[in-house]
Sequence to fold (256 residues):
Amino acid sequence: MRRSIIFVVAAILSACTGEVDDLPLAETDEAPAGIIGGTVDEGDPAVAMLRIYPEGEDFGEICTASLIAPKVLLTAAHCVTPEKVDGGTVTAFFGTDSYGEEGFWVNVVETHIDPAYDPTNKQAGHDVAVAILEEPVAIQPLPYNRVPLTADRVGEPGRLIGFGDDHEIWGFGGVKYHVSTTVHTVTPSLVGLGDRDHHTCQGDSGGPALMDVSGVPTIVGVTSFGGVQAPSICTDGWHARVDLSLDFIDPFVNAP
Fold:
């Protein structure tokens, strides 16, 4: 049985806070499930959950991350800001259900934030960070996009993955969900995928927005922020373009 997550969630997913709120409405009467409109994801082994405990706290937050090298996770900068991680504990879970008996945990020993990230202006993108694992993981990493995204990608299919809420109302997380959707917007700093019934929510921050690039599922965005309708209802999600953060990401991936 799913359990209400014990972590404090107010700031986990800026993917449920923000000003952009002009997504198209989906023509569906289906009740939301999964990452809002999704289903449990028993695949995608490279997508992990981050558990972040600040120093001296016995509660914390969750975010989502993607393995892009044997010891390197790609996640959102707002998930691992200094006030959250300095002196605290960060661990990564690989598996489907963090409450279950399957899967495994790995300690995170370093986190680094894209220096271009501005926490006061997430619409400027660069909400990108890396988390360095204590030991390498024997899972095939996901590729990340190196090709500039352009507006002609609007309407193409994509997929979102995360360990966040599986209902519109905040308060659940810790199980991996995914949803297939389409690109609705490409801006100079962000890529928007989904509609009001198929999108990310709190706890999905840092997770991958995937599209085919040269026929290969590739991370094109990192889940960053979204809109909110009272009372605390997630309405959409936007993703920082990774092709704009290559100078930051590449040195960690290529490190010996």
